[in-house]
Amino acid sequence: VYRNSGSLLNSSAITSLNDMPEFKYYVANMPIMMAENYLKTMDIMVQWAIDGARTFNHVQLVVLIVEGCVLSVVAAVYMWILGVRVAAQRYAVFHVFLAIPQPLARALATKRLDLEEEEDEDLG
Fold first, then answer.
1. What parts of the sequence cross the membrane (predicted)?
2. pLDDT tens digits, residue range 50-61?
């Protein structure tokens, strides 16, 4: 309407845009209609954002659960590996005693140690 106002003014008896009923209607009603539609649009966009946030929260929750399960399994496997290593090291330490013949071990265990008093005099 505003763009064609020059041709409308030249072709009729209307001298200004304010005399046109269409222009008066737009000036009177457009801000109200735009505000209502703007609010409706904003409500729709907020609902979309809420739905998107809800979906994102569900995705984060699933990722958190999967991460917790994976880390728990990895920690359990790591502790099992460490337990196997400790058991192997313990076996290696006590394996030496299995290599010594049993009668020799008994003889060494029951052997009496005699401490002589002469050794004390040599030190001092």
1. 61-81
2. 999 999 999 999
